[in-house]
Amino acid sequence: MAELLLFCALVALLELDTTYIGQFMFSRPLITGSILGYVTGNFFLGLQLGVFLELIYLDFIPIGGAVPPSGAVSAGTAVLMVYFFGLPAYFAFFAGIISGILFSVIERRIRAMRGRILLTAELEITEGSFTPGLLIAQNLFFQFLVVFTFMLIMLTMAGPLAAYADNHAPDKLRIAFQFSYFVVPWIGMAVLFISFSTKPKTD
Asked: 108 pLDDT band (50/70/90 cuts)?
């Protein structure tokens, strides 16, 4: 249990890099997957899952109020489900995508709540009682706690369910997951090709 808590904390720390601290790309699926793969003793599996998730998420652009799926949460869920529950990579990959999408829903709620907090901060600024360091620390801790709790729930509740589903999945469904997983790089490369080959319109 202690090991699981430590890994959940590590994912939560890496996820802060998304928009809150640094933006050094540690929260990208490629990096998060590689780091978790290394610390769990299977670097190349973590790298593979990270690359595949990266290819899927390349086309998600966080413009304006758009909240893309969390790459760090997706990679963390995928790698740790393989590590703790022995899920095959092709099954853990899709579990990771689902978790990233679910967390994006929570992230939208957090951002809406943060908008209200900023209104309070604006009032404190006008009154001269604003302490930016405290507000930043509170928001960082809250974000860390939300990601940590989400990962813990995914691994302690969804993890056993995913393992049960994998053990009882019919062969045809298993083949479909395997085929879909190995098609991902081709889909990703097609997206890259389209992105790089599309020329801006000129008047």
From this structure: confident
Which residues constitute the domain of residue 110? 2-178
Choose among 146, 140, 178: nearest CA to 73: 146
Residue 189 falls within a domain, yes or no?
A: no
The single-letter DSSP state of residue 115 is H
Q: What is the number of domains present in the chain?
A: 1
Which residues of the chain form beta strands (DSSP E)? none
Mean pLDDT over the full length of the chain: 84
Distance CA 141, CA 203 (A): 49
Task: Please name the residue ranges forming H helices in 16-88.
Answer: 29-39, 43-57, 71-85
Interval 43-55: pLDDT, tens = 999 999 999 998 8
186 located within any domain: no
Please answer whether residues 166 and 87 qualify as being in contact, where contact means their C-beta atoms are separated by less than 8 angstroms.
yes
* Side chain identity, residue 168: H
Determine, yes or no, domain membership for 183: no
Q: In the predicted model, what is the mean pLDDT of residues 149-172?
A: 87
